[in-house]
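User: Okay, second chain of the day. Same drill as before: sequence in, structure tokens out.
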Amino acid sequence: MTINSLSRSFLLLLLNVLTNCVSAIAQAPLDTRELTIEPVAVSAKKPLKVFILCGQSNMEGHAEIRTFDYIGKDPATAYLLGEMRNPDGTPRVCENVWMSYLTGHYEGRANGEGVGKLTAGFGARGDNPTRPSNKIGPEFTFGIFMEKELQEPILIIKTAWGGRSLNTEFRPPSAGPYKLPQQVQDQWDKHPDGAHGIPKLEDRKKWQEDKEAASGVFYRMMVEHVKMVLSDPARVCPDYDPEQGYELAGFVWFQGFNDLVDGQTYPNRNYEEYSRLLTHFIRDVRKDLDAPKLPFVIGVLGVGGESDNLSFREAMAAPAALPEFQGNVIAVETAPFWDRDIEAAEPKQHEYNEIVGTAHTLKADGSFDTERKWDKFWKPIGKPSPESRDWRFATIDATESKDKLEEYTDRRFRDINLPAGLENWHQPDFDDSDWSSGKAPIGKGVWKHSGITLDKFPSTWGDGEFLLMRSTFEVDSLDYDTYRLAILARQGFHVYLNGHKIHTYIWWLDKPQYRSIVLDQEQIQHLRKGKNVLAIYANDQYSAKSPEHYAALDAWIEGITKADQQKMDLALEEVLSPKDREALAGASNGGYHYFGSAKIFAQIGKAFAEGILSMHKNH
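Assistant: Same drill. Structure tokens below.
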């Protein structure tokens, strides 16, 4: 036997052994194999995956970034926080997911487009739609988990406006014109002169015209924006390859609140019309975007949790059960993500805010309430005591026409040009010796609100609309951890400490009580040992309903030590427990916005992604 024949025999033997090994592995049950296959980046390019997100305020998203920490408090959701944050705690940036986000004021005015790589900040955007906000909606975790699963470039086109209904603003073209339910029409016919919010007979033609003009406006804006973006995907997504094109890979609809509360369109909470409208919406979206089998997720509104709004939730989900939509329309419930801990704590938040936001309260007759237990932890800074201090004050009117008001209005705070000689009135060395002098509160007229009447004052304000007041106090200790301003004022004000403005309030608060305004380090740096001057600028109040001028003004600075703060926190636990506080740290908005909780929106976004992925895998 030659060497060549030996080599051939050996090779044949080796090939036979390898063949048997491969066959044995292939026949083994899948769960007994211990081979691990690492994912390999696919070099072949694919069409750009495009997902469309559309809806009203909950699609905008009102979960502030500051609520992220709460996600990690629950072992069931802690892993989500790991996906949403970088190791340094900053929000993650998805390198392969790009956003085009069209939004604007709830009525569609001043729409703007925000573009960029997906990260936190593509939630509700307020007055400037083009700039990142401090909020997220479902898009954040939707994109995170899509990127993780697909491992290829993704484009998300999001269009969302708060306060818009499916029955009017998002009304699909094929649904026909808006028509009152017969039950409601019968009520209108019984009241031709108008009553209970019903338009008068002569106004109904215009009402119908306005309704028709508003119908479908936001639907059309959504479709037009999607088409505009897809006419040049590279404008938003630099990784777009024109040779490969794009694939409309999914649509998510997350809306419903305005329809839920619309008793005119859905009398007696009968929401069958919503199901009809949503069926037309799905058909029209697919037709207008030329995507007849576009995977479609119905994000079923879940405010209130699984026990609330059952009939509406059923109506929202109903189209997914239609034979024509089988396999490519899915209803994703969001009610399971409702947070019962936040729900239980939220009613206590108002009482807690009232306590910590109020420095001191007054009795019904306007006298100082000395029995309020929350006040004992804070101590007035300086001597003499606030009730013993003398104030110098002067009242003036606006002299220049541009500073005057032409009519009564409740929101009246404004800065005026002061008379000559008063330019430096708030500086410590200003000579106020010719001003009036007296104890505070300084007031005028009758301020009556919240069961309290203020009509007797140690010092009379005088006739002028505006008040300038100054007081001096001596400080011998600054050994406090936190400082606050305790101030009684009906209208807006400027407060100066030793010539430096430390606070401005430009609105009004019609509660005769001393507000608590906690001062930060930048503000309190102007407080010093020895002589201090506190100065306040404010105006009185009047309106068309109550043309009599009235006002009251008083203020001082207080401090609290760390030890007393801990005692106060312990006392406040009877109102808001540590568990309640933890839950409320995870909320930033009302219940109709899922409490503005990133924990809830993170779960919703992930569920939407899973819904679309499930349809792709099944087909």
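The CA atoms of residues 39 and 151 lie 10 Å apart.

User: Thanks, on to the next one.
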